[in-house]
Structures are given as structure tokens and as C-alpha cells.
Design brief:
Number of helices: 4
Shape: elongated
Largest sheet: none
Oligomer: single chain
Strand content: under 5%
Order of helices and strands: HHHH
Structural class: mainly alpha
Length: about 70
Amino acid sequence: MNTYKAYPEAGQTQLATIQYWLHMIGLPLLIISMFIFTTDNKSIGIPIASVGGLMIIASALLLTINVYKRIK
């Protein structure tokens, strides 16, 4: 959240809230999928990792968009 400390007006937007929750849900999904992969259960691990990874990518894109929209 250091980015939102540097640009506090960006942290007060709905886009920031969506970005935060995408990241907070996507990261645990990735961690859970890693544990599933250790049991060699790829049929469950791959879909969970895919969803988690896409959520993290979307979160990073939203963060970038949000900050660049607010930089004057």
C-alpha cells in the first residue's frame, strides 16, 4: 500500500477498493494451489492457480490504471 500513501487521492477511489480485494483473494488462491500441487493433484491445482493468477494480474493492471489516472 505504499503506492496509495504516495498518491492518497488514488487510494480513496472505488477502483482502489476493487484492486485491493482482487489481490487479497487472488494471492491466497495461488498459495492454496501451491499446496495442492505438492500433493500432485494437478486437476484441481491448475484451475485454482489460473483463477488466482488472473486475479493478481487484473489487480496489478487496476493499480497501474488508478495511479496513472490520478497523477497530475
